[in-house]
Amino acid sequence: MIKEKSLLMLPGPTPIPPQVAAAMTRPMINHRGEAFFTLFDEVSANLKYVFRTEQPVYVFPGAGSGGWEAALVNTLNFGDKVLSVTIGDFGDRWFKVAGALGFAVERMEFAAGLAADPAKIAERLAADTDKQIKAVLIQHNETSTGVTNDVQAIARVVREHGALIMVDSVSGMAALPLETDAWDLDVVLTGAQKALMCPPGLSLISFSERARALSQTNKMPRFFWDLKAVHSAYTKRQTPYTPAISLFYALQAALQMLREETLENTWARHRLMGEMCRAGVKAMGLELLAKDEARASNAVTAVMAPLEPKVLRKTARDRLGVQLAGGQGALESSIFRIGHLGYVTPNDVLQALAATETTLALHGKLDNVGAAVGAAQQVWVARLRG
């Protein structure tokens, strides 16, 4: 029997388009020469397009976690008070990074499956009458729970207070609407391995003029993450240290694809896939982790597992060729996740739902198969009919 093809339905790393993979085979070039300057210019312009900003978007070697550190050490000083809003595992991790760096971090936690409440954030900031809170950290899209925060509303209340608003959009960028300039966001960061359709290895960060100005005077120690050095190199169409040239090629190809699709159509594709996935999950009689479907993510769907998640995922992977994601932290033994972001189409969502149904049937957790795929198809048909 021919072994099943493997379909990667994780919330990252995500599938890589053939043209992106092919781009990485191009020969090395002088990273201080004209060929790299041309590459740098194109990538920089297209990153501004995706981030919806007129400010520079800086490319650091590293994962999105490096972006957390770069955001903090370039804008704050040791001991500064930070409000870390967390709705899941990745919010918790940014909280830990801020604490490890020596900031006075206050954690505002919302239960798994809930989005952050802008009113509660506003209430906390209003109580900070002497403006001790210097920055507010939030997730655009919490990858671990499949919940999307209302960044625009949160940014509005933070702006009223005067603190910096820092946004982790690692699994949100290019999958979900985000307006860096229009929403007046100070720091936005992402990783290349999610909806940007590249291999892991690049951290991409934008700073507002207000945030960048702080990097000129703050005293936090840094070298590799130093925004002053990065910005100085940026003005010369370079990076301060040897860049990951092959990954620049990959990013160039991926950004060209996003330009061709248009960002608005990319958002619409992800919205369709999110609606299809949620319809299919509910048709199987399963429960979404997201308590308010209006805040459910269009990049990843978290589902309460009717059997041990590791068993479910192993069967889907080994017998059906579909790789699903597990839960993280406290959710490890209670949920599984279906990623639908990046180089993914509605057909892939149908296959992931079919594999989930078949897996549940094989383990005696579902009597009839087909309902999930049918429900998702109905969503797709309605969209195609307009």
Reconstruct the topology from this structure.
Blueprint: E1 7-8, H1 18-23, H2 34-51, E2 57-61, H3 64-73, E3 81-86, H4 89-100, E4 104-109, H5 118-127, E5 133-139, E6 141-142, E7 147-148, H6 151-161, E8 164-168, E9 187-191, E10 202-207, H7 209-214, H8 227-234, H9 245-261, H10 263-283, E11 300-304, H11 309-320, E12 322-323, E13 325-326, E14 335-339, H12 346-362, H13 371-385
Helix pairs in contact: 2-9, 5-6, 10-12, 10-13, 11-12, 12-13
Structure described in brief:
The chain contains 13 helices and 14 strands. By secondary structure, it is an alpha/beta fold.
Taking pLDDT < 50 over at least 5 consecutive residues as the criterion, the unreliable ranges are: none
Number of strands: 14
Proportion of residues in helical segments:
40-55%
* SSE topology string: EHHEHEHEHEEEHEEEHHHHEHEEEHH
Question: Strands of the largest sheet, in order across it?
Answer: 2-10-9-8-5-3-4
Silhouette: globular
Contiguous helical run count: 13
SS class: alpha/beta
3D architecture notes:
The chain is an alpha/beta fold and 386 residues long. It has two domains: 7-14 and 262-385, Aspartate Aminotransferase, domain 1 (Alpha-Beta Complex), CATH 3.90.1150; 18-259, Aspartate Aminotransferase, domain 2 (3-Layer(aba) Sandwich), CATH 3.40.640. 42% of the residues lie in helices and 16% in strands. The strands form four sheets. Strands 2-10-9-8-5-3-4 form a seven-stranded mixed β-sheet, with helices on both faces. Helix 4 (89-100) links the parallel strand 3 (81-86) and strand 4. Helix 2 packs across helix 9 (245-261), helix 10 (263-283) packs antiparallel against helix 13 (371-385) and helix 11 (309-320) packs across helix 12 (346-362).
